[in-house]
Amino acid sequence: MFRNIILHWTAGNYTPCSVDMEHYHYIIDGGGKIYKGKYSPLDNENCTDGRYAAHCGGGNTGRIGIAICCRKNINTPPTQKQVEAMCKLAAELCITYGLTPAKVLTHAEFGQQNPKTSSFGKIDINSLPYVNKTGISECGSYLRNKILWYFTKAKEKQNG
After folding, report:
1. What is the pLDDT of residue 82?
2. Mind giving me the DSSP string for 96-160?
3. What is residue 13's DSSP assignment?
4. Which of 2, 34, 66, 150 has the most CB atoms around it within 10 Å of its CB?
5. Exposed / middle / buried, residue 83 (Cβ in 10 Å: 0-12, 13-18, 19+)
6. With bands split at pLDDT 50, 70 and 90, how would you rate the model's confidence at 156?
7. How far is residue 104 CA from its own chain's centroid?
8. How far apart are CA 142 and CA 128, in angstroms?
9. Nearest to 107 by CA among 132, 127, 80
10. How many other β-carbons are positioned within 10 Å of the β-carbon of residue 19?
11. Backbone phi, psi, residue 42, to 5°
12. Are 94 and 104 in contact (CB under 8 A)?
């Protein structure tokens, strides 16, 4: 049973590295291409065996991790292509795993809600320069609204 989808940035360049592949279920490069990580979302249903994507320190069970490759520095901000791909993927995963877009959180929001985890104090995703969004709440709301749009479109397509 899945509880949430958590959105991250890797704090790296625009291409995934081996650490990214180990820690996230899905990784999105600067051009919007989606890569599958080493572990599937189903590996995070039960994290007691040590074989899971460790993207939310102390809170991985039941959570799917999506990361955009960016934010090594100020010169590698999130791109519109990768954010669109992330939001569309999150909407598809919501449908697949029976979640609503309201259950999608940024890593920063997850940390705020779970202060006893090592995710507390994380800042991803708190800046989307291409749409002039800054701050944890503003970015989280923007992303959920975009995910809801993709979610609604996918549901409409399913229902013909």
Report:
1. 98
2. HHT--GGGEEEHHHHHHH-TTSTTTT---S-EEGGGTEESHHHHHHHHHHHHHHHHHHHHHHHT-
3. -
4. 66
5. buried
6. very high
7. 8
8. 9
9. 127
10. 10
11. -60, -25
12. yes
CA 118 distance to own-chain centroid: 17
- Any idea what DSSP says for residue 12? B
Place of tokens 């074989």: 51
Give the strand order in the sheet containing 26-28.
Answer: 34-36, 26-28, 63-68, 4-9, 104-106
The CA distances from residue 147 to 3, 10, 107, 144, in Å, are 16, 20, 16, 5
What 8-state DSSP symbol labels residue 88? H
Q: Distance between CA atoms of 160 and 70, rounded to whole angstroms?
A: 37
Q: Please list, in sequence order, all residues whose beta carbon lies within 8 angstroms of the beta carbon of residue 145, skipping any fewer than 6 positions away.
A: none
- DSSP character at residue 69: S
Peptide bond into 125 cis (omega under 30): yes
Size of the chain in residues: 160
% the chain with pLDDT above 90: 94
- Kindly tell me if the per-residue pLDDT of 5 is higher than 90: yes
**pLDDT at position 154:** 95
Cβ neighbours for 18, distance < 8 A, ≥ 6 positions apart: none
